[in-house]
Amino acid sequence: CPFSHFLSHGLKLREREIFRLDAPNIGELFHTALKEIGEEVRRRNLSWAKLTQEQINILVKESVENIAPRLMNDIFMSSNRYRYLLRKLERVIFRATKVLSEQAKASGFSPVGMEVSFGPKGDLPPVRFRLKNGMKMELAGRIDRIDKAENEQGVFLRVIDYKSGQRDLNLGEVYYGIALQMLTYLDILMRYSEKLIGEKALPAGVLYFHIHNPMIKTKKLLTEDEIEEEIFKRFKMKGLVLSDPEVVKLMDTSLQSGESKIITAGLKRDGQLTARSKVATEQDFSILRDYVQNTFEKTGNAIAEGAVDIAPYKMKDRTPCQFCPFKSVCRFDSTLKENNYRILPTIDQKEALEKVKEALNK
Questions:
Q1: Which of 109, 238, 244, 358 is the most buried (most CB within 10 A)?
Q2: Is this model's pTM higher than 0.90 or not?
């Protein structure tokens, strides 16, 4: 919504800080903990694939004890309730770290960067645009994790984004310009791979890792190993990967045929990708990156021209107004004839990709 952006970045309005723990604070705890654990694994010269349960336990406890006092004025130590909540969140981080270690045992990819920033003062340069009025626009951000793998075809890089909620890459949302984050990260990696790893790289994919501690519901008695296997399946990373069976095998070296337990892709008995695999060709990734760049430039020009309309979107029953902190300022009311949502019809992945190609060819 242009008006939301204007209030946040133009007038720089901020919500009054309240001494409470909410979703962004919990997300910050998860992200910072996994970053520090990753840095400790590298500093101590450990291997993600060879971490023992005891090592994971120590790494998690150390990171949580280090981070907790820095969050929201030491809120976790303010009451027994918050101390109990911290222990629950610690178990979530332990479970996520344990699964990351298990995934590493069956993967040819390994982390080469955690919380890698890009921008004017970042680890990597920003992406720069010159707008119609001569103004410059720069993209800045931070990538949770970058993984690298290599085979005869070359070096591959993939983006892993940690989420405290379930998430998937919807190309319809990319087409409408409301889900640009992951493909922007991939674009950054492809642009600056030589600066990051010293050589040109190919795109392997973009994946979401859901940080949670799932409960398993079952009607039959399961062994401990069967429970662990069911939990592991709940951590399958969703997103979009390169439509190359060899790259899929690099992401899940245990995969012979059938669907992978690690990513949303699978192999038939003849070695080809299954129909359910969420994949894109190298050319598709290139097209999507170009489209995302065009969307940023178009948005930048609109901002520079002073677009501040109250114009939230609506896709099915979802609208950003649900989580917008500025509802009391804009007073958007869909019952008023002058207040209208931008209705975005849902489209499937294939149709969205075709629309992206059409838009680039105009």
A1: 109
A2: yes
